[in-house]
Amino acid sequence: MRSNSHLLPLCLLTAVLLSQVCSGIKWLALSHTPASLHVNQSHHCKLLLGLVPSQAQLCRTNLDLMQTIIQAAQEVKKTCQKTFADMRWNCSSIDIPTNASKYRPDLDRGTREAAFVYALSAATISHTIARSCSSGDLRLCSCGPIPSTALEPGHRWGGCSDNVHYGLYMGSKFSDAPMKGKRPGSHANKLMHLHNNEVGRQSLRAALVMKCKCHGVSGSCSIRTCWRGLQDLREVAMDLKTKYLSATKVVHRPMGTRKQLVPKDLDVRPVRDNELVYLHSSPDFCSKNEKMGSVGTQDRQCNKTSVGSDSCDLMCCGRGYNPYSEKLVERCHCKYHWCCYVSCKKCERTVERYVCK
């Protein structure tokens, strides 16, 4: 078996740098884990980036789980950037280089953007574990339990449900660990992150739906075998994006014998269980501002005909935009040949694009 010892210096250096971050999502640095590193021995846990001690301990006692968690870190980055591709803040800050000492301030200050990333991270890790259970990729779990509810005639429970219970259990142990340990950091931030983690898992629970497969003579669908499966992570992310847009700003105030998070403008009511919360306002992300974590929107592509967040007016913040032409080569004039293949020609067309000044 190929040795992974050559990875040790870089990984340990990065782990030290990342340990300077008082952030519960530094485990997302696992997305940089080399494909050549297969976590199958306890000492491999030392090679993984961004783990707090309790997460490293979870790694040592659940080695099978770590490849799934590495996959989850990669999914968080990819899903976040796709979900916000049409916004000024496009989640680019989630992809920090391996030699960076910390995340950008937009994810390290208790902002609305941090609220989304924490919620998505918590949902993704549980989603990935639940799916890995039902696909047989994890030895520690299998299919989810068969529901006890009766189905209508012609329907029966069967198949292999996603194991959401196990996914939520192990996912919460891992993603909540940084906020529950005795590590330095703002108590208000920890409360905010724990709350938003739970909002993410709540969205995941809502994404568990009944799926059915037809059986019967000549596709008559006289019988349907049904199971409970999770919707794609993209659906969960869009639900959390809606919550991001309506997130509530909170303050850390004494309530009874302890401090709690309460809505800043409506402190007569408690924080709702299904709302994302944040402590600090965000910049408008129009201009580059390293201190605030804004990379700006210069050179970002915009949609001239849109009236939404990706419109050239909103994306470019009134600075205007520059057009450019791009040639696309596409398949065209496709023809089906009996039996059984499709042949196509290649067509070239020119499209006009726009980027912000």
From TrEMBL:
Gene Ontology biological process terms in this record: canonical Wnt signaling pathway; cell fate commitment; cell migration involved in gastrulation; embryonic viscerocranium morphogenesis; heart looping; neuromast development; neuron differentiation; pharyngeal system development
Domain of life, per lineage: Eukaryota
Signal peptide range in chain numbering: 1-24
Coiled coil stretches, renumbered: none
Pfam families assigned to the protein according to its UniProt record, in alphabetical order: wnt
Keyword match Transmembrane helix: no
Entry-linked InterPro entries: Wnt, Wnt_C, Wnt_CS
One GO molecular-function entry: cytokine activity
Gene Ontology cellular component annotations, sorted alphabetically: extracellular space
Major location (coarse): secreted
SMART domains reported in the protein's UniProt record: WNT1
Membrane as UniProt keyword: no
Subcellular compartments: Secreted, Extracellular space, Extracellular matrix
Keyword list, A-Z: Developmental protein, Disulfide bond, Extracellular matrix, Glycoprotein, Lipoprotein, Secreted, Signal, Wnt signaling pathway
UniProt similarity note: Belongs to the Wnt family.
Function: Ligand for members of the frizzled family of seven transmembrane receptors.
Protein name stated in the entry: Protein Wnt
Organism: Nothobranchius furzeri (Turquoise killifish)
UniProt lineage: Eukaryota, Metazoa, Chordata, Craniata, Vertebrata
Gene coding for it: WNT11R
